[in-house]
């Protein structure tokens, strides 16, 4: 039997394990990239490993999230990242150079490679035929230190595309919204989506990247397209034709499941508050007044997205009731638009054109007013993420967004009387790499500069045999890492300072949480109770590290999102699953839970009896830790585990 695309790439990178769904596989990684909001921790952790230089073929440190520079904290982080990149051998993408995923697609992504990024939208690179996976900072740091990347082999699901997309106002964003509508935010858990079928030909690389980018919202490990003539065309246009290789699945490849999408049947879609899978046809919301429109983000900030928006805005005026904010995805895209006069069209319409960064997508400015409606071409509309708790955030394609901005309301863009021009993919993109700094020379004397807000990485002690902890919070399904550790301009500056950021854990849900957690520490610590898909969304390991700092011993949930589960393990917090959903209903905030004989159980069936000593009953939970994860948990996290491994390696060598 033939191989699918994922199997081909995995096989070429396999350092151990078998490509069998559910078993651990170790992969050699070609590229690792970080962004600033997760990168300061990743680079501090790399530094704590005591290595001189990264041991992967390519490492890049981007600055794109945390750029408001309200005080010294952000610029200090930038300088730390710049000096650390120079010293340890990574490229450094300066603030202003653009959003990591868009810049990486333009400058480094290559078919057949494996990349890790400390951001959940790393799968953007799947549009290039690259396996691109989002991970926590500590996982990235250990891989940069020379380890293989271990992952539980996901199911490979084929998304078979037929039909054509070439109709006005139907875009790649509508394709991924359609998939979210049918599969939901849990539909991709433990899966990799591999796109195939005749419809693939109809999509260019940046359109494919929009689709794989937002595959993160499905909970998928990653998504990937084949590398074909369209890929070759794009790589030639960005001046990297030598990076092209053809890569497709074998005719007789097999898949665990197949999902069929007919591109010809897709219509303009929109996700309603407060989840990216709450998708309906734009036409069904016609007449809804709009107060703010934001266009950009790593999902929709390519040259094509921006050029189409400029074409819609040209000669029109933004409605008097609307604020329109636009962030181009990269400096190259920005410069190209400027040189072609397209930025002028945006400005003339009344758009506020911001810098090439994440910006409003992560609440770094551009918050809507209270109770307002904001429509964004972004990927997440979780409650409060915009910076305004009671705002109503919708997600739609960039061109739909531009039409709403002009009309002041949601309207089927096909009926707005604005003719959308056909987009012709450029054969030559503007190339200006002057904001991508080269790594410093190995062995040169570079000092890593750390400002006063950059604190050491906290480390937990080893696992205890008995856990006695208080339930500090009980939550339902689909809790996001934005719920656990909010972002936004008040919080992001503390990403390099765990003691300070820990004050914000769950602050949008229960602002007494961190105080109660600290109080509970002297009594054994705290437990968090979650429902299905706990920790979906961002890769921020602060959502595990800060709770660990506050003495959280375990999270009990019905199921976990992949990256967050790894982050919990990496910081020594036990991820435990309820065996019976009804036990989730019974347990309450304030209950004291006790688990004994953990050492014995963790190495055996991993079935734990939990005594609820407050209510006087017991129930069972389980963990699914593989051998490596068990060792990590025992040591108190990945950092102590890695240190110990390198000490024993050195001792063995002597
Ligand atoms: C996000 O979109 O939520 C972020 C901000 O890019 C995160 C990373 C972070 O929290 O720093 C992500 O998606 O992983
Ligand atoms: Fe940045 Fe938003 Fe993309 Fe996250 S989702 S990387 S915040 S643009």
Describe this structure as you would to a colleague.
There is one protein chain. With 654 residues, the chain is α/β, with parallel strands linked by helices. 29% of the residues lie in helices and 19% in strands. Strands 14-13-19-18-15-16-17 form a 7-stranded mixed β-sheet, sandwiched between helices. Strand 4 (58-62), helix 3 (73-88) and strand 5 form a beta-alpha-beta unit. Helix 2 (36-48) crosses helix 3 (73-88), helix 9 crosses helix 11 (342-349) and helix 16 (542-549) packs parallel to helix 17. The longest helix has 16 residues, at 73-88. It is globular, with a radius of gyration of 24 Å. The mean pLDDT is 97. Alpha-methylisocitric acid binds at residues 37-38, 65, 119-121, 134, 362, 487, 537-540.
What is the makeup of the main sheet?
7 strands, mixed
As an assembly, this protein is: single chain
Mean pLDDT: 97
Rounded to the nearest angstrom, the radius of gyration is 24 Å
- Low-pLDDT parts are none
Number of domains: 3
Percent of residues in beta strands: 15-25%
The molecules bound to the chains, other than polymers, are: alpha-methylisocitric acid, iron/sulfur cluster
The strand order across the widest sheet is 14-13-19-18-15-16-17
Q: What is the molecular shape?
A: globular
Question: What is the terminal separation in angstroms?
Answer: 47 Å
CATH topology of the largest domain: Aconitase, domain 3
- The structure class reads alpha/beta
CATH class of the largest domain: Alpha Beta
The CATH superfamily of the largest domain bears the name Aconitase, domain 3
The CATH architecture assignment of the largest domain turns out to be 2-Layer Sandwich
Strand tally? 27
Percent of residues in helices comes to 25-40%
Helix count equals 21
């Amino acid at each position: 039997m033939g191989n699918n695309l994922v199997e081909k790439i995995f096989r070429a990178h396999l350092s151990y394990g078998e490509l069998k769904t559910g078993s651990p596989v170790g992969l050699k990684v070609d590229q690792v990239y970080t962004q600033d909001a997760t990168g300061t921790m990743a680079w501090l952790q790399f530094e704590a490993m005591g290595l001189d230089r990264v041991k992967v073929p390519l490492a890049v440190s981007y600055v794109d999230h945390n750029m408001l520079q309200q005080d010294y904290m952000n610029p200090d982080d930038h300088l730390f990242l710049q000096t650390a990149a120079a010293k340890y051998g990574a490229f450094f993408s300066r603030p202003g150079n653009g959003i990591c995923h868009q810049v990486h697609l333009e400058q480094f992504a290559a078919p057949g490679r494996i990349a890790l990024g400390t951001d959940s939208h790393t799968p953007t690179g799947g549009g290039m035929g690259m396996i691109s996976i989002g991970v926590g900072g500590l996982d990235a740091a250990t891989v940069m230190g020379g380890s293989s990347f271990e992952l539980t082999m996901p199911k490979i699901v084929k998304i078979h595309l037929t039909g054509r997309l070439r109709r006005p106002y139907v875009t790649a964003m509508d394709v991924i919204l359609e998939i979210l509508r049918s599969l939901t935010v849990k539909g991709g858990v433990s899966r990799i989506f591999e796109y195939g079928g005749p419809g693939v030909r109809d999509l260019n690389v940046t359109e494919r990247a929009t689709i794989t980018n937002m595959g993160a919202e499905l909970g998928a490990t990653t998504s990937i397209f084949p590398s074909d003539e369209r890929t070759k065309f794009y790589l030639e246009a960005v001046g990297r034709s030598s990076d092209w290789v053809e890569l497709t699945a074998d005719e007789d490849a097999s898949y665990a499941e197949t999902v069929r999408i007919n591109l010809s049947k897709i219509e303009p879609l929109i996700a309603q508050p407060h989840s990216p899978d709450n998708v309906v046809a734009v036409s069904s919301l016609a007449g809804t007044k709009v107060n703010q429109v934001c266009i950009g983000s790593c999902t929709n900030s390519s040259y094509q997205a921006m050029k189409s928006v400029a074409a819609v805005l040209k000669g029109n005026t933004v409605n008097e009731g609307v604020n329109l904010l636009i962030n181009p995805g990269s400096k190259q895209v920005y410069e190209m638009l400027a040189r072609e006069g397209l930025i002028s069209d945006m400005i003339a319409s009344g758009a506020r054109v911001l810098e090439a960064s994440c910006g409003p997508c992560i609440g770094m400015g551009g918050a809507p007013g209270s109770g307002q409606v904001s429509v964004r071409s972004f990927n997440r509309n979780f409650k409060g993420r915009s910076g305004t708790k009671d705002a109503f955030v919708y997600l739609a394609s960039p061109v739909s967004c531009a039409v709403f901005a002009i009309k002041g309301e949601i309207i089927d863009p096909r009926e707005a009387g604005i003719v959308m021009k056909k987009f012709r993919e450029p054969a030559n993109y503007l190339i200006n790499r002057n904001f991508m700094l080269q790594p410093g020379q190995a062995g040169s004397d570079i000092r890593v500069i750390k400002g006063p807000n950059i604190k050491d990485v906290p480390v937990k002690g080893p696992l205890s045999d008995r856990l006695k902890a208080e339930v500090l919070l009980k939550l339902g399904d689909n809790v996001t890492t934005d719920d656990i550790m909010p972002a936004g301009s008040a919080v992001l500056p503390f990403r390099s300072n765990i003691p300070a950021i820990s004050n914000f854990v769950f602050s949008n849900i229960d602002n007494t949480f961190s105080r109660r957690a600290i109080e509970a520490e002297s009594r054994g610590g705290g437990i968090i109770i979650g429902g299905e898909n706990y920790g979906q969304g961002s890769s921020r390991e602060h959502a595990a590290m800060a709770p660990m700092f506050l003495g959280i011993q375990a999270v009990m949930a019905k199921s976990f999102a992949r990256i967050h589960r790894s982050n919990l393990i990496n910081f020594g917090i036990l991820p435990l699953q309820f065996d019976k959903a009804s036990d989730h209903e019974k347990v309450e905030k304030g209950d004291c839970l006790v688990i004994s004989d953990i050492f014995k159980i963790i190495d055996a069936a991993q079935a734990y009896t939990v005594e609820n000593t407050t209510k006087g009953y017991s129930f069972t939970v389980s963990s699914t830790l593989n051998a490596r994860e068990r060792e990590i948990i025992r040591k108190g996290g990945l950092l102590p585990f890695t240190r110990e491994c390198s000490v024993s390696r050195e001792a063995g060598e002597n």
